[in-house]
Design brief:
This protein is of the alpha/beta class and about 325 residues long. The protein has two domains: about 20-185, Rossmann fold (3-Layer(aba) Sandwich); about 185-329, Helicase, Ruva Protein, domain 3, CATH 1.10.8.60. The chain is about 45% helix and about 10% strand. The protein has helices at about 20-30, 50-60, 80-85, 100-105, 120-135, 160-165, 170-175, 195-205, 215-220, 225-240, 275-290, 295-300, 305-315, 320-329, and strands at about 10-15, 15, 40-45, 70, 110-115, 135, 145, 150-155, 180, 210, 245, 275. The strands form four sheets. The protein has a five-stranded parallel β-sheet. Strands 11-10-12 form a three-stranded mixed β-sheet. A two-stranded antiparallel ribbon has the order 1-2. A hairpin with a 2-residue loop joins strand 1 (about 10-15) and strand 2. Helix 5 packs across helix 7 (about 170-175) and helix 12 crosses helix 13 (about 305-315). The radius of gyration is 24 Å and the shape is elongated.
């Protein structure tokens, strides 16, 4: 029997995949910023997709046609951080030949500073001046240089605690957080796991791929400490190592423990192989049955909006959807 395609792609806006209320709220905030060029602070754990959010903010902004330059502050050497960001003049230090710096490279567009909490105190002071005066002073120069750049910043650190510890400037913090966007971890939006898995398999698979229901159960049960980045890397690895166009439990990384899931009598090889869309359908219908048809309760249990749940039930042509149609249609 030929395996059925498990993944047919997933709905996404700006590359942000998911129907959960949390990610939809992030998308609503992004779309409200379409006429704005204020600084934005993006908060979230490592691997949640903060750069994707920053790119989306840039894409909807009046600067969309201009440069978007991402910079990971954690990779900048402390002693050279100022010159890397703000430039230096020839002779500013031994071997210096002159460099305009990353800020001026993004002039007219958007500079995305990831891991903003890693900036040194001198770099923080210069970034504050940039936000206040729209100018930078290259290392070794007495003359400031005007620059027009939007700053988007991100961090997985608690900046308020860093302020208390004296490692981050409070005035810079308040300048950056004109708007704050929090990107939730994957464990808080489990309903996005299957759509994200579909998205990544479609991205990396060169042929139709199916998945065992055991793997899907493991995906839904796993806490994903590395968030979306870990899910993407897991799917990519499994696709690369797959046999017979099927993702099986044996293809999972060793970090995945059984976490209390019962093993089938015939092992994973004997497990039923279903399209992921069918696994999702059964999971949703099981939740509706569990709450005796209360769609509000089912949506809360699944971690999705009631409108999303109703749309899926209409696709399945269920009695619950028909009843909603009679009531409201």
């Amino acid at each position: 029997m030929q395996p059925q395609p498990a993944f047919e792609g997933a709905h996404s806006d700006f590359g942000l995949v998911g129907d959960s209320p949390q990610i939809q709220n992030v998308l609503r905030i992004i779309k409200k910023l379409s006429r704005d060029t204020s600084p934005i602070l993006i908060l979230g754990e490592s691997g949640v997709g903060k750069e994707l959010v920053a790119r989306a903010v840039h894409q909807v902004s009046p600067l969309a046609a201009k440069v978007f330059l991402p910079v990971d502050a954690a990779t900048l050497v402390g002693s050279l951080m100022e010159s890397e960001l703000f430039g230096h003049v020839k002779g500013a230090f031994t071997g210096a030949i002159g460099n305009q710096g990353l800020v001026r490279s993004a002039d007219g567009g958007t500079l995305f500073l990831d891991e903003i909490g890693e900036l040194t105190p001198p770099a923080q002071a210069k970034l504050l001046r940039l936000l206040q005066e729209q100018e930078v002073r290259p290392v070794g120069s007495a003359q400031p240089v005007k620059v027009n750049v939007r700053i988007l910043a991100a961090t997985n650190r608690d900046l308020e605690q860093a302020i208390k510890d004296g490692s981050f400037r409070d005035d810079l913090y308040y300048r950056l957080k004109v708007v704050t966007i929090r990107v939730p971890p994957l464990r808080e939006r489990k309903s996005d796991i299957l759509p994200l898995a579909r998205h990544f398999v479609a991205k990396y698979a060169m042929q139709p791929v199916s998945v065992s229901d055991t793997v899907i159960e493991r995906f839904l049960d796993y806490p994903w400490p590395g968030n979306v980045r870990e899910l993407e890397n897991t799917v990519r690895r499994m696709v690369a190592l797959q046999s017979k166009s099927v993702l099986r439990e044996k293809d999972l990384p060793t970090a995945f423990q059984r976490r209390g899931l019962p093993r089938s009598n015939g092992g994973d090889e004997a497990a039923t192989i279903l399209p992921l869309s069918e696994v999702e359908r059964r999971h949703i219908l099981r939740a509706v049955e569990h709450v005796k048809g209360d769609l509000q309760a089912a949506a809360h249990l699944l971690g999705i909006g009631k409108t999303t749940l109703y749309r899926k039930l209409r696709q399945y042509n269920t009695e619950e959807a028909k009843e909603q149609g009679r009531l409201f249609g």
